[in-house]
């Protein structure tokens, strides 16, 4: 403990500073919930990002010495709690008083001294006098400044998330500023109102502030004390260079190490060295960067043998302490392993027998993107022209440049599918996942390197193709969704023949059925029926197809046909004219309006399903004007279809710009089509390999549009959903849940995983019991900004080159250096991102519910939002940091088990 200057027996000062080494789970009255939880891990002798707490008693001392006690009390007495404007005005005045007050000299000195100690190499040594251990850092370090209220996590009321946290604070002056900002956040309108509503006296509420060093990862990863996917007791560890956020999103193929827990030596049973083409790092100014790795580095083992065994040892220690298998996030800086977070594994009940999804052994002949999980063996049939589709027999492997809807019927016969081009949102990937057929896309050279008639094995789990038959065929198991979430989970079903497979999810609502799937299975273009004057047959085909899907579900949202000429020109009766740019041509709702009889046949088929007791949502694609929806309503009125909900696809920038007008037209729902919205916004053809690296559904321009539409729809009580493939990406799911989307539609094979992830984001658990207060820190406290989480000890850049260049075998010192000579390869970064206010754990729905339960007027919440938005305008936008690696690599690497790995960093 740092001694206080001027202490005396008569006038003893409180402890302003407490280091993690002085804390444990019983320290909540001193340092609040966060501080106590960090201290608990520290007491297990496990390295956590080092830091200290400014005590709640220090806060009280600050208020007292600034003579703010009576001033705050006087101002609070003037509040009319149901008078929103007055509440906002007075709490703002209180915050201004706190932020404008000077720190007592003795308190300021202790804080600065602790900050400088934290920046020293020996910041963990607290047993000696401060003056004996301080080694001043050559420059100020980046720290996180986190509020930790003494009223957090109480049984009778939850105050979590009501106070502020700031990341990447650098320098003593800024540190003092942001500590006071944390102090003042005790008196936001919402927090003040909430305390009053719950009957807590304001003077009883104190605030501790946690100051932690920001960790700048050389290596990062996740460890599971029990394999989360296979039924065994092995420890599983995944690791990448730099920051670890690329693992869960699938941006980087990590190394994977399987470690036995049976021996004290932690024998490493298996090692899979991923080809890590990129790394996510920070530059010296703190900006996050995606850097390209040379092949020598990308294929090098990330963790050293002793690091693997040490992490395995820590995993078992945490499991033993908490008496549950743990999902652990770690970061390594300068050889020091830090545990960033630990929580229970939530997927143990869904593990499969060992061997269901293991890496195959054999002669690897080709690699691509893992587009649809499963294993398929069979004879290669290379298709250069659609007229050759007839040579594909049941159980063959379809190999082609790129699939299109004309191939749907043939695809159903195949044991697996391989393409030269395309990404995970390409037609081959989408359809294969629904069918449960293994698929590897984007191989670049499948049609030239593979030979017609040869036998191969396609591993859709890992994106690999092997010579000969080396494994039995296997589909990914469809798991039922067993957890209830506020954000509704729906399933995507296009093909009637695979609807029973989707029904295994136990979900009762279909968020998207595309009529093109049924049309493609019929083999005939709608124009065929129009010219043959047999639209009743067209209606019957659609009715039968929808009925086969709907029998498994209670509600089904159906998109009217969206037939592009380039994708369907090989169907019988298809027009032969070629559009210069089919994507910008005659399809979607404009096609239906041009051919109203075709449009009516589609709507009549839906009406008949509705008359059988099923709820129907009509989704209009490619909408760009309110007049189009008015025309749709006219046709619905004409055919007497009044029961269906009316919705539009948000997939054009026009639909985003006109969302208010659409809501005023009384639509019932919207559904984001992020595939097309991304293409239209970024002017990128996702099927064009040359610009594929620019295609990014998480681009800030897309996220801003989604955010705007959701916010507007909420004002008009219009339901919001997503039906694009992005709904299966955890990065996008996290963003959508945070912004309050009503439902997310996903492929059947990921429905269970996404539901569990949404539940986690919403603050739930997948088990029957809620975690007790003692284990509160095991929930994702750092959930929204995990990559920013601190870390410490060990010098930064100079050591990193050494760290990465060492591998399993000895590498001479004169080998090619990783950093200095190759700027594009993992530079060791000092610092962290510019100061950003951290988002709290609770989602918008949690806040809304909390406000409703406490009776907080919505005007207060709105004022808080505006206040936060204004503050964020002065700080770099977090969304800017969500740009993915595609800007560099042009491809998306799939994590082997990204559906089981929880969101990290």
Topology (SSEs and partners):
Blueprint: E1 17-19, H1 28-43, E2 51-54, H2 56-65, H3 69-77, H4 84-100, H5 105-118, H6 130-133, E3 142-149, E4 165-170, H7 172-184, H8 189-197, E5 207-213, E6 219-224, E7 235-241, H9 246-249, E8 255-259, E9 268-272, E10 278-282, E11 288-292, H10 295-298, H11 305-322, E12 326-333, E13 336-344, E14 364-367, E15 369-372, E16 374-383, E17 397-400, H12 408-411, E18 416-419, H13 427-435, E19 439-441, H14 446-449, E20 455-459, E21 464-467, E22 474-475, E23 488-492, H15 499-503, E24 509-514, H16 515-522, H17 526-531, H18 535-550, E25 555-559, H19 565-568, H20 589-594, H21 596-611, E26 615-620, H22 626-639, E27 645-650, H23 653-657, H24 659-664, E28 669-672, H25 674-682, H26 700-715, E29 719-722, H27 730-738, E30 743-746, H28 751-761, H29 797-805, E31 836-837, H30 844-854, H31 858-873, H32 886-889
Parallel strand pairs: 16-17, 17-18, 18-19, 23-24, 23-30, 24-25, 25-26, 26-27, 27-28, 28-29
Antiparallel strand pairs: 1-2, 2-5, 3-4, 3-5, 4-31, 6-7, 6-12, 7-8, 8-9, 10-11, 12-13, 14-21, 15-19, 16-20, 16-22, 20-21
Walk me through this protein's architecture:
- This protein is of the alpha/beta class and 905 residues long.
- The protein contains 32 helices and 31 strands.
- The strands form five sheets. Strands 14, 15, 16, 17, 18, 19, 20, 21 and 22 form a nine-stranded mixed sheet that branches.
- Helix 18 runs parallel beside helix 21.
- It is globular.
Brief rundown of the structure:
This protein is an alpha/beta fold. Helices cover 34% and strands 18% of the residues. It contains 32 helices and 31 strands.
